[in-house]
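Tutorial, part two.
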Amino acid sequence: MASVSSLDKDLRNMRLGKYTPEAANEVRAWIETSIGERLAAGDLLDALKDGIALCRLANHATGPPGVRYKESSMPFVQMENISHFLRACKSPPLNLQAHDIFQTVDLFEHKDPAQVLTCIGAFSRRANALQPNKFPTMIGSRNKAGPMSPDHTGGYSANAASSRRPRGTSNTSATSSAASAATSRAGGCTSPSRFSNSLSSSVNGGTKSPTGGITTPAPKVPSLAEKERKRREDEAEAERSRQQAEEAEEKRRAEREAEEEREKIAEEKRWAEETRRQREAEKQRIEEEKRKWDDEERKWKEEEEARAREEQEAELQLAKERQQKL
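Running the prediction step on this input gives:
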């Protein structure tokens, strides 16, 4: 039996295999048609990473007051936009199921691209049911091929039966018939030597007939009790596999949520540290400008005082000259 870790790895590889270029292009075309805008070129997850297109989708489906989002290159702001979209998916009137909703890191860090497509597909079906005029189509709504006719799948038909090669008589049947006839002519008795030869000539599980032909033993048909026991064992094994898969999925989801919480806390710390540094730099810049302004004002005052003293001295000198002339 496979371990939980190997089952987890197999499930992850299977989910990653569901994210195909065709599925991503279908989701991209539906989003662009719904919001009336072109997404950024390249990978779909990178185009949706900032959460702006998803928030516009939610606003288009739910109406006012809608989801508030911000256009920013900061990772913390972009993750907040994705969280706003997921919150709108869980709330009325969308009310998406929990198994249809992805986690923020599934999109932002490409942890589970298939779950992102699953969520947007469920969103398209719900939006089509709520707002058919705004969302006339939904993802995955193409017609599927109808069931094939038995005539094209190898079923029985009269023409096929008539065209079949007639079956001849097998060599074993003919030999057995001849042996039976010979035994009857001999009075229905078989000699001891031929009987011992028939008992000692077993080839690959078969029994050699008195005339030299090989007959295979009849296949063993299981009884109803054996069938029931086998069915119960298969069901128990399937239940164990299902429980292991659910436990692995729950463990993966818990680890993903814990990792997302750690990333959020780390981003908040980085954001707070960046804000503190910017505020300190702004404070230093203001203090520097104030210091320069004070120096300039002090110099201006000194120059004004010097100019006033010079004017006063000039007036005194002029007054002395006038007195000397008198």
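The chain is about 65% helix and 0% strand. In part three we will examine how such features are distributed along the chain.
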